[in-house]
């Protein structure tokens, strides 16, 4: 159950604070919505229908500090998820982004960094769709880790690098 004041992770919108439930009229029907405010997009508001189980399944509690530190310590053990077929890769990467599941997001980022390095050796770049997936996955990870660790999202990559070196 989501309650006012909760901080949650919601799909592509990342870390959000729940301000409560509001009623809005859609056509002739009055519906109830959770009102979410993404913490890193100050002027945004998300209205999440209280009766939409599919959308509600994309809401999860924000990670704990212990979970973040464990995820960082296990980064080198994460498997890559590269798929050669463009359409299949796009579908899987979209599912990972929508899930907001941090292990899958880390796997996606690791995969795309590895792919990017291989392509740069050949003088090529990532496809634009893959670059977009990388950007979204990095943003979601950086924002959640930043919130949990009490640092700026831009500082998360260096924080991770330092922790991995230890």
Please provide a written account of the structure.
- The protein is α+β, with helices and mostly antiparallel strands.
- The chain folds into 2 domains: 7-61, Thrombin, subunit H, CATH 2.40.10; 65-165, CarD-like, C-terminal domain (Methane Monooxygenase Hydroxylase, Chain G, domain 1, Up-down Bundle).
- It contains 6 helices and 5 strands; from the N terminus they run ββββαβααααα.
Give a brief outline of the structure:
The chain is of the alpha+beta class. It contains six helices and five strands.
Spatial separation of the terminal alpha carbons: 39 Å
Give the helices and strands as they follow along the chain.
Answer: EEEEHEHHHHH
Q: What radius of gyration results from the CA coordinates? A: 18 Å
Helical amount = 40-55%
Instruction: Using the coordinates shown, work out and report the CATH topology of the largest domain.
Output: Methane Monooxygenase Hydroxylase, Chain G, domain 1
- Strand order in the sheet with the most strands: 4-3-2-1-5
Oligomer: single chain
> In terms of structural class, how would the helical and strand content be classed?
alpha+beta
* Poorly predicted parts: none
* Biggest beta sheet summary: 5 strands, antiparallel
Domain module count: 2
CATH superfamily of the largest domain: CarD-like, C-terminal domain
Number of strands: 5
What is the residue-mean pLDDT, rounded to a whole number?
94
Look at the structure and give the CATH class of the largest domain.
Mainly Alpha
Number of helices: 6
Give the name of the CATH architecture of the largest domain. Answer: Up-down Bundle
Q: DSSP strand (E) fraction?
A: 15-25%
Shape: globular
């Amino acid at each position: 159950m989501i309650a006012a004041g909760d901080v949650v992770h919601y799909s592509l919108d990342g870390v959000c604070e729940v301000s409560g439930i509001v009623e809005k009229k859609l056509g002739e029907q009055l519906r109830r919505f959770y009102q979410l405010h993404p913490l890193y997009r100050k002027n945004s508001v998300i209205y999440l229908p209280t009766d939409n189980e599919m959308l509600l399944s994309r809401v999860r509690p924000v990670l704990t500090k212990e979970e973040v530190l464990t995820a960082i310590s296990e980064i080198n053990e994460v498997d890559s998820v590269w798929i050669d077929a463009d359409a299949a890769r796009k579908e899987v990467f979209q599912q990972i982004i929508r899930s907001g599941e941090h292990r899958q997001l880390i796997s996606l980022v690791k995969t795309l960094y590895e792919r990017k390095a291989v392509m740069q050796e050949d003088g090529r770049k990532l496809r634009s769709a893959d670059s977009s997936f990388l950007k979204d996955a990095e943003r979601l990870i950086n924002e959640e880790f930043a919130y949990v660790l009490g640092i700026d999202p831009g500082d998360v990559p260096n924080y991770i690098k330092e922790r991995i070196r230890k």
